[in-house]
Write a structure and sequence with these properties.
6-stranded antiparallel sheet, 151 residues, Immunoglobulin-like, signal, 1 helix, Secreted protein, mainly beta, 5-stranded antiparallel sheet, elongated, 13% helix
Length: 151
């Protein structure tokens, strides 16, 4: 009986890992913690149009080979919880590489990231940008463009 329970537990853990993924390569639609990667480039950090205490930027993470990933990183420096929704766009994708993260909340002094899809970038300059929405406001604020050059 103990072996069966262990086997079921192991199977559930493997299935969960396969379905949910792990680390920064996990894409949409969930917000996750920002884990600083070893190779990445970010655009300028700006505050949202509706708050001087909520900052965000678009980054591009470089994985192995030509694989890169757009990421929207949001920091809440206010003393209030903020509602968040985000979209990332990658120019190296023929369809614009749009990914999104569903509504979530970021606590005071918290930081979260919306990881776009990992895909093969183009040789040369690759760019990405994000649109960040907060507290249910229908009009998002655009981030400055991030760029990453692949050789």
């Amino acid at each position: 009986m103990r072996r069966i329970i262990r086997a079921v537990g192991l199977a559930a853990a493997v299935a969960g890992t396969l379905l949910l993924g792990a680390g920064p390569s996990v894409a949409q639609p969930l917000w996750q913690a920002w884990v600083t990667p070893s190779d990445y480039s970010c655009g300028k950090t700006i505050h949202h149009d509706k708050s001087n205490y909520v900052f965000f930027q678009t980054c591009i993470i470089h994985g192995s080979g030509h694989y890169i990933q757009p990421v929207l990183v949001v920091s809440n420096t206010s003393d209030k919880t903020v509602g968040i929704f985000g979209e990332t766009y990658a120019n190296w994708e023929s369809d614009g590489g749009m990914s999104f993260c569903h509504d979530d909340h970021i606590p005071p002094n918290g930081r979260k990231a919306c990881y776009g899809e990992t895909s093969s970038g183009r040789t040369g300059v690759n760019t990405a940008y994000s649109i960040f929405y907060m507290n249910g406001v229908d009009i998002g604020t655009y981030s400055p463009t991030a760029s990453y050059t692949l050789l």
